[in-house]
Amino acid sequence: MGRILKKTALLLLPVALYFCLFAAFEPNNYFGLRSAGGGEAPIARLKSFEQQPGSRIIIGDSRLAHFDMQQVEAVSGRPWQNLAFGGASLREGVDVLNWALDHNPELSEVVFGLSFYTLTTTYDADRMTSLQKTLDNPFAYFFNLEYNVNMLTRLSSWVQWMISTSGGKTGLSWAQAQMENETGDWVSPKDYTGPDGTVYPLHTKLALYPGALKARCEGWTLNRQQLDRFYAAARRCQEQGVRLTVVLPPMADIVLTESCTPYGIDLAMENEVLPELRAKADELGFSVLDYEWHNRPKYDDDRQFFDGFHLDMKYGLPDWTAQLFTDLG
Fold it and tell me: What's the mean pLDDT in 273-282?
């Protein structure tokens, strides 16, 4: 019997060692071993909130995911947790809001991102069910192929960083090296010339962005089911004394003129969606801050937008962060 146990222990040793490696380098801080958060992946942000639920949260897609949270706290005068993540649909935003309301009875304030892009039936991603299973089951997280690939990628980056900084060399810290910044100092003509040689008046990433939105815009139809689900969640906020603010993030002019106007999205938003949203805001006690249609910041698109939706993290996002959280106050 003792021999069997020893052999079993030897067989399990590599698994145990791999688990330790996984726990040390998995990028989402799922096990809460690091003081810093786990980045902007949905599993990382939801797990961080689950471990330490704060009273003020931000929900939305990538346009709300990149705030400098130190600046947010400095401007607003209060700490926030960011639960926004890339590609979050309206369905997922409502799921996260209901999940947060369930997990923290002390929740006091929510910023909820909304946009013509998330209000359409042509984009209705649904990842929350699988995320909740992973949040509740560490084994599901450990045996998930994607998270293992992420861990190995992070381990490889750490090894490369260690090699590059060996011998007393200075440079970016490990944490800084992992940051993905959406910023650019665009240089003419190379950053203004498309793959076919066309020279654009805006940097290429911005000039070509409407093409990436075409599939979602040309069949734009209001997602009534998910919008009604949002109203139901807003009523929960009202009943639980949670201050809810709906934020429509700014878009570049080229998105308005080439992605919205040609498909009648501007008319649908102005004549149908926004009036209804304001009426529901009065009924359900939430606020609306609209930077997408009626209070559009006067930004230099070519300098302050990284692409048509995302503000440049160096030249644009800090300005909007200051404006948003000042207006919120």
Answer: 98
